[in-house]
Amino acid sequence: MPSRSSQERLLLVIDNTAAGGACTVLLSICEQFQDSRDLTVAVLGKTGSVSSLLISKGVRVVELGQGNGRWSLLPFVRLVRLLRRERFDVLHCHLLKSSVAGGLVRCFFKIPFILHDHSDLFCAFERIDIFSHNPLVRMFFVHLLRWILRRADRVIVLSEESRQVYLHRYSWLARRVSVLPNALDCHAFDRVVESSAHELRQELKLPPRTRIVTMIGRLTKAKGWDTFLDTAKLVLASETDCAFFVVGTGPDEQRLKDRVRSEHIDPVHFLGFRSDVPALLAQSDVFLFTPPYEPFGIVLLEAMAARCPVVSVSSAGTRAVLGAECGLLIPAGDSGLLARGIFDLLHNPKMADEQRLRGRKRVEKEFGVSLFRERLSAIYRDIADASSKTSATVCR
């Protein structure tokens, strides 16, 4: 292994290190490249569980937020100071605040800037309303995103469909947009203990033959949990041996629990955060996924790796993950068709078994960690080569 002084130095910048899709990808990058590159993770906001995990793996984590507000300028100032003290070869930014920081840094430092778009925010302007319903504020964000993109040396998106949207909106980005799907190590799902889900049934006092429909995600409106409950209500009206599992936490938890009680949607179990996701998915009969818009959905990869059949709302990300034959794709908001899909999988074992087999094979072939490393290594090489050519031109 090359010495740290001779390794390419990567500065990975992220808004926060609370559990989430972007942090899962960040963790994967660190695991895949720690042996070949000198890594530093800079956190602009609140530090969470992922910071502790990175530190335990020997990754350097620099906290720049230190209790300041979400849009405080101090983390940006501290980032600039860090770049003045130390030389980095690549700046790889995740999430919005970090991308703003990357755009600002690119104005003052000759360091290649990679913008990693985990949410399709930069090409799906209709989603700008998450910041404000005020048209002037929304217009500000539209121009801000364009300004950042013009300073990015490379933009990473999660699917070819997202790439095509980028090229339609920003034709001048043609050679700078790369597709890098998220990845999953399937080995964790091969070590699942078969008895664990039976223990869960016992814990919840469910009959041993109860058929389980599971969804995992943050309990927010964006994840479509009301559609999940609408679907559960339809299925449970006729399937008396089913139970629906809600896995995750979030601001909508109490509201959703109140709805379950008031509408007598039973049995629906709120399991909170679970560390045994592979075992839970391996013993679920169906994985239901209801976000009206999803840029990718790592949890879909987890369900497929666990050989759990999938019924999902159709969006750019879910289509990219599931393909044509690895899940049932349903138009957003149609709880009737989602329920029909669950009925079909519960009552057609051959269909469910075929999905299990195809889903697992697709994860191994298209979304393995070795392929992820190969693709990202190629992006880093391209960035380094382009930077070297630019430096050589300047020297002449």
Summarize the structure.
By secondary structure, the chain is of the alpha/beta class. 47% of the residues lie in helices and 15% in strands.
Please give the order of strands in the largest beta sheet: 3-2-1-4-5-6-7
Overall body shape = globular
Secondary structure: number of strands: 13
Number of domains: 2
SSE order: EHEHEHEHEHEHEHHEHEHEHEHEHEHHH
How much strand content do the residues show? 15-25%
Tell me which CATH architecture of the largest domain applies here: 3-Layer(aba) Sandwich
Largest sheet: 7 strands, parallel
Helix/strand-derived category reads alpha/beta
SSE topology sketch:
Elements (H helix, E strand, L loop, with lengths): L8 E6 L6 H13 L4 E6 L5 H8 L3 E4 L10 H12 L4 E5 L1 H13 L4 E4 L18 H17 L2 E4 L2 H10 L7 E3 L7 H4 L5 H8 L7 E6 L8 H12 L5 E6 L5 H10 L5 E5 L4 H6 L3 E4 L8 H8 L4 E4 L2 H7 L5 E3 L4 H13 L1 H18 L2 H27 L1
Helix pairs in contact: 4-5, 9-14, 12-15
Model description:
Helix content is 47%, strand content 15%. It is α/β, with parallel strands linked by helices. The chain folds into two domains: 4-183 and 368-395, Glycogen Phosphorylase B (Rossmann fold, 3-Layer(aba) Sandwich); 187-366, Glycogen Phosphorylase B (Rossmann fold). Helix 4 packs across helix 5, helix 9 crosses helix 14 (335-347) and helix 12 (298-305) crosses helix 15. Mean pLDDT is 89; it is low at 392-396.
Q: Key terms for this structure?
A:
single chain; 396 residues; alpha/beta; Rossmann fold; disordered C terminus
